[in-house]
């Protein structure tokens, strides 16, 4: 019975319906007009969409079971480790850095817009470095390993990535004056939308969302980000507001005539939990072991993925640049 009770509690936790159920039991429905009430209603949306997406996959006979299986194992692994470290990291950073903030915002609509732009800048930095620094890529590659896109991919992260990401995003926001209550509101909205943009083609065939594709970052943009096609590599690092991708030249729209190939460029078994979770660390260890001299060994930690001490580099920047040059030559 204890095992069954634990399973039910974990299922309720995954679905995010616990808070809403408690509020319903109170009989005071006016509480759903408060912040906590609204959050309790929004939080279950993504888990329920994930289940619906999986069911539709079975109906369409495109279940992507390998992706769901590995991502479920990653979710279980991270459930008991990563989230507690990330929460502690955010709390510590707020306490340490808030006294050094340039100024202090308030809970108003215009400061909310400011805060979201600042948050997106912090997210861009974390995400960009996650692709451009080999050690950080080892943390982030787990998220890019799935070879199909669906909502379960949002749970595919190495357990130390959340603390690393939140440390950067929280530091930027706190130093730029985003007060904690406003920061947590932005984190909730961004986390919910950040999960949604992983929606797969079983549920949303065209992820461009009409005219919104020109205004915000859509599932189409994020599918591009998860692609290993040379044109798409290392693009669309933002989460909701793609302003910083456009500022720094990493913006790329999906091309209708180019089929997206998901996954990473390293040969791997995307259905193997250990290869997905630890494979990049193992590959980095082998490169460091073979590299001559301490300088080259250190470079493997901090240079972009694909960098080689032999000079035979295969970084995303070089691969994409070569592809674009070939396209210009054809024209």
Automatic annotation (TrEMBL):
Annotated ranges, domain Fatty acid hydroxylase: 113-250
Bilayer disposition of the protein: Multi-pass membrane protein
Location relative to the cell: Endomembrane system
Keywords annotated in UniProt: Lipid metabolism, Membrane, Oxidoreductase, Transmembrane, Transmembrane helix
GO MF annotation: an example: oxidoreductase activity
EC number from the UniProt entry: 1.-.-.-
Transmembrane segments: 41-60, 72-97, 109-129
A Pfam family hit: FA_hydroxylase
Origin superkingdom: Bacteria
Name by which UniProt lists this protein: Sterol desaturase family protein
Lineage, broadest ranks: Bacteria, Pseudomonadati, Bacteroidota, Flavobacteriia, Flavobacteriales
């Amino acid at each position: 019975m204890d095992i069954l009770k634990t399973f039910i509690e974990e299922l309720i936790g995954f679905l995010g319906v616990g808070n809403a159920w408690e509020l319903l039991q109170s009989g005071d429905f006016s509480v759903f007009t408060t912040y906590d009430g609204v959050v309790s209603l929004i939080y279950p949306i993504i888990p329920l969409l994930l289940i619906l997406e999986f069911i539709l996959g079975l109906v369409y006979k495109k279940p992507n079971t390998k992706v769901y299986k590995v991502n479920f194992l990653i979710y279980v692994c991270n459930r008991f480790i990563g989230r507690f470290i990330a929460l502690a990291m955010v709390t510590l950073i707020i306490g340490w850095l808030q006294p050094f903030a340039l100024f202090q915002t308030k809970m108003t609509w215009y400061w909310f817009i400011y805060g979201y732009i600042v948050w997106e800048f912090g997210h861009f930095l974390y995400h960009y470095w996650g692709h451009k620094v080999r050690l950080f890529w080892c943390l982030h590659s787990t998220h890019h390993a799935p070879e199909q896109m669906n909502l379960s991919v949002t749970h595919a992260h190495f357990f130390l990535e959340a603390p690393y990401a939140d440390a950067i995003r929280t530091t930027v926001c706190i130093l730029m004056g985003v007060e904690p209550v406003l920061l947590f509101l932005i984190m909730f909205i961004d986390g919910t939308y950040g999960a949604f943009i992983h929606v797969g083609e079983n549920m949303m065939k065209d992820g461009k969302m009409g005219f919104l594709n020109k205004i915000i970052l859509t599932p189409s943009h994020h599918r591009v980000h998860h692609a290993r096609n040379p044109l798409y590599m290392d693009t669309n690092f933002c989460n909701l507001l793609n302003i910083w991708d456009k500022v720094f030249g990493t913006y790329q729209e999906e091309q209708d005539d180019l089929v997206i190939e998901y996954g990473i460029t390293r040969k791997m078994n995307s259905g193997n939990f250990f290869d997905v979770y630890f494979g990049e660390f193992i590959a980095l260890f082998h490169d460091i072991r073979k590299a001559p001299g301490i300088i080259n060994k250190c470079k493997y930690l901090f240079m972009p993925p694909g960098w080689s001490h032999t000079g035979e580099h295969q970084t995303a920047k070089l691969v994409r640049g070569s592809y674009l040059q070939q396209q210009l030559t054809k024209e």
